[in-house]
């Protein structure tokens, strides 16, 4: 004998969602769609602004924007190029990433799988606090404390490891790409560690228990269950940190000696970056100079966009563990 479904008040059930949910779903869908469209519109507006402002300076440039190693846009015959600035930006950011990622992943693993609960909570709070420190503080710390401190170690490395191209050069100094990279590594480490920690905490408990049941040690559990699951998150966190490093302005502006040249000797007192050059030169720039700085900002915008696109592609190819949270 068939029975009919009834609501709590005794009336027949219609199978439709509640009216309150129906009224709220449509505005939410439009709001979320509008937010996504607004974000794309803002990015497009930024790109259009940079292109419009950069074109007159590029037309007045007497040199090659991609190959010239000088930066004299305020002269009567302006000549400037992005090569040296892009080189310093990419090299310092990549070195910072190489130094920061292993430490950040280790810190995240310690907090999520090794530290006692109380200690993990304190360390997590400290990591989050480090991410909130203003960049100018890191820059001042680097200029006042780190630059004098590294002079001796740099001379030692240059003397005994100078046969390695990165550590060679006729002179070394605290105001170098290496020092800027150390500052950037310290700045991006909390970001990578915090995101990686949250990803590692999402590893399904059943995966870890299964590995332990098979006789795996704690390190083997981390290697076989935690790291494969968290790899996409670590990659995303690393790319986010790389974008932060490439766009950092004040901290590196205080460290870099504002020279223009391509030099792989990271201990030499040379180096500059796109963001630092914009900060140092915008106040004294003329019309062409401002356009040249905006053109360099356009290059940084494109580089950052390419880096994030590459990160998305890498993460999309490594989704084998992303749905294992159930």
From TrEMBL:
Its main location: membrane. The chain crosses the membrane at residues 30-52, 80-110, 122-147, 177-196, 249-268, 288-311. It is found in: Cell membrane. Residues 1-27 are annotated as: Disordered. Residues 86-311 form the ABC transmembrane type-1 domain. The keyword Nucleus does not apply. Keywords: Cell membrane, Membrane, Phosphate transport, Transmembrane, Transmembrane helix, Transport. Coiled coil: none annotated. PROSITE patterns: ABC_TM1. It is a multi-pass membrane protein. Belongs to the binding-protein-dependent transport system permease family. CysTW subfamily. Part of the binding-protein-dependent transport system for phosphate; probably responsible for the translocation of the substrate across the membrane. PANTHER family: PHOSPHATE TRANSPORT SYSTEM PERMEASE PROTEIN PST, PHOSPHATE TRANSPORT SYSTEM PERMEASE PROTEIN PSTC. NCBIfam families: phosphate_pstC. This is Phosphate transport system permease protein. The gene is pstC.
